[in-house]
Amino acid sequence: MTMEANNGVSGYIHSVESFGGVDGPGVRYIVFLQGCPLRCIYCHNPDSRKMSVGILTNSASVAEEIEGYIPFIKNGGVTLSGGEPLAQPEFAADILRRCKDMGLHTALDTSGYGGTVAVLKVLKYTDLVLLDIKAYSGKLYTAVTGMSEDKAKALLEMCEKLAIKVRIRHVVVPGYTDEPNEEQMLARYLSKFNCIDRVEPIPFHKMGEYKWKDIDEEYELYGTPEADEKTMDKVKEIFTREGLKL
Predict the structure, then answer these.
(1) Whole-structure pTM value
(2) With b meaning 16 or more CB within 10 Å and e meaning fewer, what string describes 94-113?
(3) Is 246 part of any domain?
(4) Residues spanned by the domain of 150
(5) How far apart, in Å, are the Cα atoms of 155 and each of 23, 112, 129, 138, 204?
(6) Can you give the pLDDT at residue 166?
(7) Is residue 42 domain-resident?
(8) Minimal CB count within 10 Å: which of 20, 94, 113, 117?
């Protein structure tokens, strides 16, 4: 990304949601940034992965648009999602900085996949991290994302040191991330962190399947069922047994 004298930092976005209600506390303006290095087999926004197909804009323009919604989001805030916001750290950081200057609560919805310097730039202006932990064990994490789990764990450790509140998100995929021993190891690991506000187990759903057809890419989970209530109850029980708040 490049700095521009009057417009801040240039970057690519996928879309926006002006009245979001699930990506952080209160009513929120959500900016979905374009680009993601992970290749999650259950991704519900696969069209947001390639940077080149995004909308080129700049942080000043994004902040100016957000400013017009302050009367509606002043008790909520702004969330950067994706894609992966840490794929564009300077762009993400400058948007969040401008939001903080407007007195807005800021949240970062991320997989944690960014370098230490890049992550710290963004966390400087972040009130809440919504961290998507795909899996605990390295083998399973790589199987579902194509990448290592190290960066997600490193971001969580940074938040612990910086006392930044974290809300863990974890997608429960039948036949993959719902295995009891895997969930138990994840729960025990998360229970050690004081920065974690709560854990949100999220059931795998089929709403994004059509996007894979639209972009003409192979999708491995057409035959995978959605996570049912019984599956989710078992996962929730594992987390609460380890003292984690849901």
Answers:
(1) 0.95
(2) bbbbbbbeeebbbbbbbbbb
(3) no
(4) 3-241
(5) 19, 6, 10, 16, 24
(6) 98
(7) yes
(8) 117
Per-residue pLDDT, 11: 97
Cα 245 to the center of its chain, rounded Å? 19
Which residue is listed with tokens 């519900």? 44
Here the CATH number for the domain that contains residue 180 is: 3.20.20.70
Q: For residues 88 and 1, is the Cβ–Cβ distance under 8 A?
A: yes
- Which has the minimum average pLDDT: 66-75, 126-135, 168-177, 212-221? 212-221
Task: Please provide the average confidence, as pLDDT, over all residues in the chain.
Answer: 95
Judge whether 156 and 132 are in contact, CB under 8 Å.
Answer: no
Query: Does 12 map to a domain?
Result: yes
Question: Shortest CA distance to 51 belongs to which of 20, 80, 17, 86?
Answer: 86
Domain tally for the chain? 1
Partners of 161 in the beta sheet?
none
Give the pairing type, strands 77-81 and 28-33. Answer: parallel
pLDDT of 5 above 50: no
Residue 208 is predicted with a pLDDT of: 84
Q: How far apart are CA 221 and CA 97, in angstroms?
A: 39
Which is nearest to 210 in space by CA: 38, 53, 32, 45?
Answer: 45
